Amino acid sequence: MSGTKLYHRHLLSLLHKHQHCSSAIRQIHCHFLVLNVGILALWNSIVKHYSLSAFPQDAVTLFGYLRNQSKPIFFDSFTYSYLIKACANLKRAHLGNQLHCSSTKVGFDYHVHVQTALVNMYMDCGCLADAKNVFDEMPEKNLVTWNVLITGFIKWGEIEFARAAFDSMPERNVVSWTGLIDGYTRKSRFYEALSLFREMFVGDGINNNKPTEVTLLAVFPSIWNIGCLEFCEMVHTYGEKSGLNVLDVRVMNCLIDAYARSGSIESAWRVFEEIGNAKKNLVSWTSMISAFAMHGLATEASDCYVKMEGAKVKPNRITFLSVLNACSHGGLVEEGIEFYRKMVEECGIEPEIKHYGSLIDMLGRAGRLEEAEKMALNIPSEIGNVVVVWRTLLGACSLHGNVEMGERVTTKIMGLEREYGGDYVLMSNIFCGAGRYVDSERVRRLMDDRNASKLPGFTLA
């Protein structure tokens, strides 16, 4: 082998070795320019790196430079595929269309990889009709082509077109199934997502395309929203047999949530216990605390938090929100106040509106309305959406029949937002409960005058 070829092989080796290092690639790029390198394989590696990097424009710029040299390089399908990918990442359909024309002129109009890249580019840029036209004109399509079309439709919410393409596929793989399941889930069509998962699992998946951890993670939101214990058990069993439960703690964490939302706190706890202590992460602990809170098991949620501390796992704001909600619904006021103190003073976490809402709800349920009002008054103005906290306090005033505070709170709410009819109804009921029927009727008339009765409310849950 000649010295030149050895040197080129050395340069190619350097490119592969430093393919994830932008500064190194730029240095090699400059070296190529100085040496006036004309080897396409070397330039293709540079183009690939730029196309997939945070600066895909560099790939396009390099292409223009190389094409305008006195001894121009004749680009291959690899070059065009990655240049088109750069246009997809740039979301520049017009530039991609120019490359579409250029690639056609040099004979790549029937090349499956170039055409697949074009389908992907048009989809990423939102040009769905152009993507479908390229797809329809392709004489040869592979699985990647079909999956690009399906995932593109799903990305833009065109689930019916995605399903039609899926049903037309000559063969499918796990990417096809997972993509469509995820699409149905994102469109809140949970029953269809679960039906498709069952079809994959029973009919096609076990023999040919076994569900992966990505498939399971895609279907979990549908299980949560429907609360289907049967699917929890199906996924749990499959995860055990396939080894996914051991390999991916995300699957186990999602199972905890799924079981809890499906009404089986015992199964959620069993899954939590199955996770090895070394693998339990913050999400595992927070999911279990949230599961206890969801089922009104305040003491168990508090105890779980203490165990988490013992395991040296640092909580985050979601962990604290879960345990505060548990204390609120379980009446553990002093424990909740202590958790709040730990969050702010020991962990240095700034409370968000939901933390304030949970604490005020807890104090309000316990009848400690003055403390709740004081906390509401001290919420920083920049925190945003504070009206939901005052509504929580108004609900507590109604629960305990505190007319005087109810009036103050209602005045506060009206200064923030007047359009929600529920505020008027609640204050009217407070007046009615205190025998102040004239004031109750006055508030009802005010609600009608402001046409405030038909707007939806908000919740901190």
Automatic annotation (TrEMBL):
<feature type="repeat" description="PPR">
    <location>
        <begin position="316"/>
        <end position="351"/>
    </location>
</feature>
<dbReference type="GO" id="GO:0003723">
    <property type="term" value="F:RNA binding"/>
</dbReference>
<dbReference type="Pfam" id="PF20431">
    <property type="entry name" value="E_motif"/>
</dbReference>
<dbReference type="InterPro" id="IPR002885">
    <property type="entry name" value="PPR_rpt"/>
</dbReference>
<dbReference type="InterPro" id="IPR046848">
    <property type="entry name" value="E_motif"/>
</dbReference>
<dbReference type="Pfam" id="PF13041">
    <property type="entry name" value="PPR_2"/>
</dbReference>
<dbReference type="InterPro" id="IPR046960">
    <property type="entry name" value="PPR_At4g14850-like_plant"/>
</dbReference>
<protein>
    <recommendedName>
        <fullName>Pentacotripeptide-repeat region of PRORP domain-containing protein</fullName>
    </recommendedName>
</protein>
<feature type="repeat" description="PPR">
    <location>
        <begin position="248"/>
        <end position="278"/>
    </location>
</feature>
<keyword id="KW-0677">Repeat</keyword>
<dbReference type="GO" id="GO:0009451">
    <property type="term" value="P:RNA modification"/>
</dbReference>
<feature type="repeat" description="PPR">
    <location>
        <begin position="142"/>
        <end position="176"/>
    </location>
</feature>
<dbReference type="Pfam" id="PF01535">
    <property type="entry name" value="PPR"/>
</dbReference>
<feature type="repeat" description="PPR">
    <location>
        <begin position="281"/>
        <end position="315"/>
    </location>
</feature>
<dbReference type="InterPro" id="IPR011990">
    <property type="entry name" value="TPR-like_helical_dom_sf"/>
</dbReference>
